[in-house]
């Protein structure tokens, strides 16, 4: 038997790497352009196929995780994404760059349906481990731009891909040596703690579908728009890009703390008890942010980020609590496919709404969308508590 703490530690590291690897190019492209003799606008589209594969690939990788082996799929993830990062650092032509970034997206698509399902299978306290796992993913997002900038400035943009690629492969080798494949027959299922009546399962599915679309769209829109919103609305406080970046990073810290807190609450209370009050946070804060500036905007933005990050933890826990072991990777695959597809659409939606009426129109629109999160929480049925399966 594998040590649960060891497996979860590797899976948490995978969450960090997954988000980190997907954002290296976004930070490195600024210095890659002059080196490759291409403009920023010419290089950026080469990342698009990788982001499409990141979401679309989860359907296949989740199915393989259930039907074949989650351990083997995670090993492929570590080695594959590490090799892909190294390959980006070795490219010589734009076509090679596009292929290497596509490979990162394909291997990155393994993590969420497979890694999250492994967390559920090995966790003694599901909510707590989900919260901690979310923090690791956020650290990957926050670290990518910083580390890429340092490596790019002092060693060149190629090392910004090669160094994390090498480290990731080494982690994969350690994973292969310390985590063994094991059959699931008779294995502990930590998530078998809550059930709903069979006739109420449609309410769970409908609630999940509604909240994933609403929150994934809003979550991605907020992360895309927040730097520009701060640049426009915090001009009386500072015009320094570096300080604006620090303010945005501090706001996101509250989001990471919220994921951990919501995870702990999910271990003590039913999912509906936690989800319902949380669902009321986003709409009013988004509506208020539309007309605020300076310090009041920062405080309200903290509320927005806390609501959005907390909802992500609830969504993941919902799948973990209500799906059986043999279907769990596929359930997460569908959840992330829908979520990432909606998130991808949000970028164009932000641009269109901003063009129509600036941030006032955009924030009001997403406040209206987040009313759906309240409806989704109300739809959730009551849980039937059962003893933890052995």
Automatic annotation (TrEMBL):
It is found in: Cell membrane. The keyword Cell membrane applies. Coiled coil: none annotated. Residues 7-385 form the Major facilitator superfamily (MFS) profile domain. It is a multi-pass membrane protein. Its main location: membrane. InterPro entries: MFS, MFS_dom, MFS_trans_sf, MFS_Transporters. One of its GO terms (cellular component) is plasma membrane. The chain crosses the membrane at residues 20-40, 46-65, 72-91, 97-123, 135-155, 161-180, 201-222, 242-262, 269-289, 295-314, 334-354, 360-380. This is MFS transporter. The lineage of its organism: Bacteria, Pseudomonadati, Pseudomonadota, Alphaproteobacteria, Hyphomicrobiales.
